[in-house]
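Hi all, long-time lurker, first post. I run a small reading group and we've been trying to get comfortable going from sequence to structure in the token notation. Rather than ask abstract questions, I figured I'd post a concrete chain and ask someone more experienced to write out its structure so we can walk through it together at our next meeting. Sequence below, copied exactly:
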Amino acid sequence: MSSKKRILSGMRPTGPLHLGNLHGALDNWVGMQDEYDCFFFIADWHALTSDYEDTGAITGYVREMIIDWLSVGLDPEKSTLFVQSKVPEHAELFLFLSMITPVPWLERNPTYKDQIIQINNKDLSTFGFLGYPVLQAADIIMYKADGVPVGVDQVPHVEITREIARRFNFLYGNVFPEPEAILTKTSKILGLDRRKMSKSYKNAIYLSDSPDKILKKVSQMVTDPQRMRKSDPGNPDICNVFEFHKIYSDKPTFQEIDPQCRQAKIGCVECKKIMAANLINAMKPLHEHRAHFMANPELVQEIITSGSEKARSVAKQTMDEVRAAIKIKDSRKAS
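-- Answer (accepted) --
Happy to help. Here is the structure in token form:
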């Protein structure tokens, strides 16, 4: 058995991944692979909480997501990569946990309140949407994770999981550890329009975007709103393109652009072209890896199958403990 602490995290396959996902989560995951026993899963059942009316694209997004994960450096030799729906024990544990979780715990969830207001083009008045933190808790404690890597805004999700695990242990005996939130650095990258990068806002640069598409999107980026003409001095402190320069351009480049912008010695068009070229260059290894996996679908499927089988072997052991604690036999086994 591994002496490393175990972590678990997942993503919903609701669309292609973008630079915000890369810098907000995936870079952190890749960096944790040598330190932790990592379980990362594609939460396709969670996608149904908001996209239950149109499920046709989910399977394709699952495949695209695993390819993006592999392309950025998640290694199936170091991490267990799996698909939620291929481990049906998640649904069984969700059922048991839903029986003991008080409704007020779910109603006070800040994400639930916010999304009910923000996502006003979908009917989210469903039990599945209200109860998704219970499924999330099942995902995490199924693997007895010691920690969950999250940004500070997601800490309440982990706290609900801790409360549910604590309540189960109080009622049935000590089965689950209470996972800790592992705070990770969050992305400072905004979308093309300076809002949070999101496929919903149609303001994202995707990991799958070609160099031509990246160049076109960068040309449309919002810069300093006060700078109307090239002859006007700019302010890099409020320019989104300059934030990208800090990540994708070398230090001498963005240190040179800063005073040039303030003194109107460089225009936004030229500045964007320089940044786009550096972004495209930085994405080149990712695109090469992505092309390799796109050309080898059998390999991708093998990775999904192998990772899901490994995850399920752990889940089966956990569910044996859960049923024993609750004193309910597994009807699939001979009595």
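A couple of things your group might point at:
The radius of gyration is 22 Å.
The chain has a mean pLDDT of 94.
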